[in-house]
Design brief:
Strand order of the largest sheet: 8-7-6-9-10-11-12
Helix content: 25-40%
Shape: elongated
Distance between the termini: 19 Å
Structural class: alpha/beta
Bound molecules: glyoxylic acid
Radius of gyration: 22 Å
Length: about 325
């Protein structure tokens, strides 16, 4: 297909804050219609939903910037010519894969390009939780510093055992970054042993082993029916008392009621979360009443370079789908 032919094809971009670099790639090939609204912003979901209802009909591709679900209704409104949903995220738990599959619609995501940025946030969460940054920042903000040698003491990463649940791109990038912290031992668990683990000095163990041995437990798995609430009352009971849980995957990997109880009762030491349920977390949510939790507002991939790379990859997947070529990062094809 030549560009003049593909110019007849309509590509819908679901939000007004898609990176300019990605938009430029799309506009060279297609007629791009972009929503005036941001899924997350003040304008909110309702306005954007109405806008999408207006702009979706006739779309050949949908570039999806949000974790709001891809519903049957949206797909019906788009129409049978829709060839691909290109989600600008690594996670695709919001994409209704069975429905896309049933309709023969392709799905792509943006893994790998975000692994280092998300790993940097995993390191930030580790340090934030271990060094009690929530409490310590509070002291600075209040102008009421605790004085003394044995004040709010934290935990070392040096000499610790770090357990990674899900040694994919993000898990591997996190281990690489932590290598300089003099970690004693890296463990990981997942469906199968990973060839990359050898070079990282990471040992494959069962989930139970990882839970009972790790000082830091890092969640870097996708959210699926299998992983939903994998951190719960039962699995927390297997952890060490000084365990620190870090989550850069999805909020629903953790049963937050169980996490709250464990942090409140001192059954584990702390948690660092970049993802929660819901997002945004209401400011009166009970998790925010805890001193031993360090929460960030889902900023894992939120750097200029990474978001731009994600935008361009999503655009290139659209080009490939609409010109009959294999996707660069397929989920479904
Ligand atoms: O959460 C972010 C992503 O899945 O890319």
């Amino acid at each position: 297909l030549t560009t003049t032919m593909t110019k007849d094809l309509k590509v819908v971009v679901s939000s007004n804050d898609y990176p300019a670099s990605g938009l430029k790639v799309l506009q060279e090939h297609f007629t791009v219609v972009q929503s005036k609204y941001n899924h997350y912003g003040k304008e909110g979901i309702t306005e954007n939903k109405e806008e999408l209802m207006k702009i979706l009909p006739g779309a050949s591709a949908l570039v999806w910037i949000s974790h709001h679900p891809i519903t049957k209704e949206l797909l019906d409104i788009a129409g049978p010519q829709l060839k691909i949903v290109s989600t600008v995220s690594a996670g695709y738990n919001h994409c209704n894969v069975p429905e896309l599959k049933a309709r023969g619609i392709k799905l792509s995501n943006t893994p790998d390009v975000l692994s280092s940025a998300v790993a940097e946030i995993a390191v930030a969460l580790i340090l934030g939780a271990a060094r009690r940054l929530t409490e310590n920042l509070d002291q600075v903000r209040r102008g009421d510093w605790e004085i003394g040698f044995q004040k709010t003491l934290g935990q070392d990463v040096r000499g610790s055992t770090v357990g990674v649940i899900g040694l994919g791109g993000i898990g591997q990038a996190t281990v690489k970054r932590l290598a300089g912290f003099e970690v004693e031992k890296f463990l990981y668990t997942g469906h199968r042993e990973k060839p990359e683990a050898k070079a990282l000095n990471a040992e494959f163990v069962s989930l139970d082993n990882l839970l009972s041995q790790s000082d830091f437990i890092i969640l870097a798995v996708p959210l699926t029916d299998e992983t939903r609430h994998m951190i719960n009352k039962t699995t927390i009971a297997k952890m060490k008392k000084n365990a620190i849980i870090v989550n850069v995957g999805r909020g629903d990997l953790i049963d937050q009621d169980a996490l709250y109880d464990a942090l409140k009762n001192g059954d584990i030491y702390a948690a660092g979360l970049d993802v929660t349920t819901p997002e945004p977390l209401p400011k009166d949510h009970k998790l925010l009443s805890l001193p031993n939790i360090f929460i960030l507002p889902h900023i894992g991939s939120a750097t200029e370079r990474t978001r731009s790379d994600m935008g361009v990859l999503a655009a290139n997947n659209v080009i490939r789908a609409l010109t009959g070529k294999p996707l660069l990062s397929p989920v479904l094809e």
